[in-house]
């Protein structure tokens, strides 16, 4: 990959904007930046992280690498933002089937519905997001944010699955447990292909969540 300066994350967990080398803050500039990012994101979903570069991104966006450097701080910045976009798509798919008031009514049922989305999602999307975590582990000094930002993105959704009357601490404890477990299942699914074992482990998780929800405060 092309090496470039990376940004720090914004307070909301999204990639930061403070280190932009050039201002693109006008409505027209922001629209153009979003258009370019969406095209690069689509390419990443199809072709993965391997051999990602600024020139490849420029071809996918139908522009030049110099234009991308006007709107982004290099290949690493663009990669982080595209991975962020892909996670937002994953989260949006999960929320579409778990929204309170229209979807499942219990924590266990919401997690089950979300898992079905993760399990059955497009192979390209799953592959890229798994690759992003692997890249963060391989070169944590350069790509740690690819994994760190994942928790910031996923946790609000998992917290929203918890019963409203739970304390914030209890919601966080359960959400963190679910996040770690599902990420482990996804990684095991990618590396081992042991779908039967993963299915058994998931059923154990669902039973644990049902007991947690049934327990008194």
TrEMBL record:
Residues 30-90 form the HTH tetR-type domain. The keyword Mitochondrion does not apply. Keywords: DNA-binding. Residues 1-34 are annotated as: Disordered. The keyword DNA-binding applies. GO terms for molecular function: DNA binding. Residues 53-72 bind DNA. This is TetR family transcriptional regulator. It comes from Amycolatopsis taiwanensis.
